[in-house]
Amino acid sequence: MVSEHSLGWRLVLSLVGLWGFGESLSMIVRIGLSTCTRVLLIVMVLVGLVAAGCGRKSSTSAGVSATPGVACQHVGSVNFDKTKFVLHAGLGFGAFHHFIYAPYKAGTLHGVVALGKAGLAALFAVHELKLAKADAESSPTLCHLAGPFDKASAAISGSASQIKSGKVSNQDINTMNNDVNAVQRGAQDDGVPAPDQVPTDAQLASGGS
Questions:
Q1: C-beta of residue 147 within 8 angstroms of C-beta of residue 170
Q2: How do the domains of the chain map onto residue ranges?
């Protein structure tokens, strides 16, 4: 005959799956135990099942929380950062697309006026993209765009002299466009779209807003 002490341990083990729950209850009924002992063991089973269920739930929750999302460290503090971001980024995107990329693709990026505006637009775009980067860095939503902004600014800045002289290559133009568009899409995906805003001639001449 199985002792009451041994049966108690088997029931406890059954709670973690080593013994069947139904078999354990059947043993309680078959073996001659006092009513108090049976009640006690059944309570042990029920309490154990509740504890096991909670343990599984906690484990599942821990598994979910252990999968972090993409995060970035925002720095600085800019008032109305998203509003200013849309303004500066939009002007930077617009300056590049309107005065550099579109004329190049249309075959009109030549002549003193067009090249002069393209040269100013390159400087203007770099300035505005840097301001937009500072705005993005102060926002926990947009701070991950700091790197792409640096890449786009560097691409335009590195080709500024070639743009102004009309000697920029098709490869360089496409690289700049891809980098600028990548940042613009990133802002769109973050729910802060920054559509192109074409700067005026006065804004271009000023070098930035």
A1: no
A2: 4-65, 81-206
